[in-house]
Amino acid sequence: MSDWTPRRMTGAAGLLLAGGGVAGLALGGGVPALGLFGLGTIVSQLLLLDTRPVKTPVVMLHSVAGFREDRPGTFSVWCPPPHFESYLKYLRWRGYTTITLDHLYRHLREGASLPDKPIVLTFDDGYLDNWVYAAPLLEKYGFTGTVFVPTDFIQPGDQPRPTLKDVWVGRLSEKELEVYGYLNRAEIEALSSSGVLDIQSHGRTHTWVPISSEIIDFHRPGLSMRQLRWMWWNRYPERKPFWFHQIRHEDIPWGLPVYRSDLRLAAPEVPEDPELARRLVEYVRAEGGEAFFDRAEWKKELDSLVEAYGSEDPTPPGAPGDAAFRTQLVDELRGSREILEGLTAKPVRFMCWPNGGTCPEAFGLLEECGYLAATLPSRMKQPRNFRGTNPSRIGRVSATSFFRESRRILPWTLSFGMKIERNRGNLYMELPIKAIWFYRRFIRPAKKAPPGSEG
C-alpha cells in the first residue's frame, strides 16, 4: 500500500483544487476558477480512478425474460431481454472481455494473466430463459457466462427447446417461444458443450426448512408466497421444476402449521411434528375447511389446540446433532456437484449459495465436497476480486437496476454501467450512485413493487 501513498496524496490534493474551483465559481471567480476546477478534476483521478491492480466485476443476474401475457403470476422478471441486450452493448462499447470463474480463480490464486477489462457474468437459478434468450444474445455479442443450477429444479427433457435464434431465422415468432420455467437436461448439456454458458452449482433443493418448533402461522387463504412456496416444494419435490404453473394454495392442507424457517444450507432442519399437523388439519376440515378462516377468532382456536397439544407432550423435537447437519450440507454440496458433472461431463468447482443462505459449517465443507470457491451472500461485504484477495471467496455486484420501478431501457443501462465501473475501481461513480440513493430514500421513494418482486 505504501507504493500508492504518493498517488493517493496527489489525488487528494486534486480534490482540494477542484473544491476550491467550485467555491471560486460560486463567488464569481470566472475563468480562473473554472481552470482550477478543471485541473483539480484531472489530478483527482489519481485517487478516484483506482483500476490497478486489475479488478474483475462478477455480475449477478437471474432471469432474462419479458412481461408476456402468459407469464405466471409467480414468475419474477429480473431483466427483460431488450435491457439485457443493452447491457451487452454497453460492455462491448467499453471494451470488456468475459472470462470464466476458473480463469478468475487461477488469477487470484496463481496470478494467471487477465485481459485489460475482465468481467464475469453469472445467472442464478437455472431459468429456461437463460437458454432461450441469454445464450443467443451472449453469443451474438461475443460474451460468455455461468449459470448456477439448483438440481432439484432441472426439468426432464431430451430435446432443447427453441430459442431466440429460431426467431431470428424465421422458424417461429417470439410469442411462440416457451419461456417461463427451468432448464431441462438437454439444454444444460447443450449449454455446457457450446461454451457460451458454463454450468456450476446452486445446491440441490434451493428451499427453506423448519429450524425450530415455533409456529409462526397456519396454512390459510392469503398465506404469503414466501411461506407457501417452500411448503409446496418440500411436499411435492418431484413437481418443483413446474411450480410456476402448478402451485396452488389448495395443494396444502388448510391449517397445517407454518414453522419458523431458514434456508437449508444455513441451519439444521428440525423435524415437523406429524401428530400435531394431523390434529390441526382435521380440526380445520371438520370446522368448514377454507371457510373456517372467515371466523374472526380462527387463530385463537388453532393456538389453543397447539397449546393443549404441548401440555400433553411438553418436549418438542429438537435440532439434529452436528453429524445430521453435516449430512444435510453434504447432500446439498456434493450431491448437486455430482448430478451436474454427470450431465455435463465437466468439472463443477464453484458454488453459489441459494438466496445467500449459508453458514460457517457449509463454507468449511466446500473443499471436501470438491469445490474451489463460492460466491459470497449479498449481505456480506463483497471483495472486488483482485490479486491478493481470497480466491475461494468471490464477490459479486448485483445487476438489479436502481430504476427498477421503470421499464425503460436507458435508466437500467445507466444503472448497470455505474455499478460495473464502480466495482472495477472508478470511484467517481460513488457520486451519482449516492445521489440516486438519497433521491430514492428521502425525496421520491418507490411506491410500487418493482419488476422482479412478484411472488
What can you see in these coordinates?
Helix 1 packs antiparallel against helix 2, helix 4 (81-94) runs parallel beside helix 6 and helix 4 crosses helix 15 (409-424). Helix 6 (129-141) links the parallel strand 3 and strand 4. This protein has helices spanning 5-26, 30-43, 45-48, 81-94, 101-110, 129-141, 164-168, 185-194, 225-235, 243-246, 274-286, 298-312, 322-344, 360-365, 409-424, 430-443; strands at 58-61, 97-98, 118-124, 145-149, 197-201, 208-218, 257-263, 350-351, 373-375, 393-394, 397-398. The chain is built from 16 helices and 11 strands. It folds into 3 domains: 2-48, no CATH class; 58-204 and 329-443, Alpha-Beta Barrel (TIM Barrel), CATH 3.20.20; 210-263 and 273-316, no CATH class. It is globular.
Strand content: 5-15%
Question: What is the fourth-level CATH superfamily of the largest domain?
Answer: Glycoside hydrolase/deacetylase
Named CATH topology of the largest domain? TIM Barrel
Number of structural domains: 3
Q: Largest sheet, described in full?
A: 6 strands, parallel
Gross geometry: globular
Q: What is the N-to-C succession of helices and strands? A: HHHEHEHEHEHHEEHHEHHHEHEEEHH
Percent in helix: 40-55%
Extended strand count: 11
- From the N-terminal CA to the C-terminal CA, the straight-line distance is 47 Å
CATH architecture designation of the largest domain: Alpha-Beta Barrel
- Low-pLDDT residue intervals, each spanning 5 or more residues: 449-455
Helix count, per DSSP? 16
Radius of gyration: 26 Å
Report the CATH C-level class of the largest domain: Alpha Beta
Mean pLDDT: 91
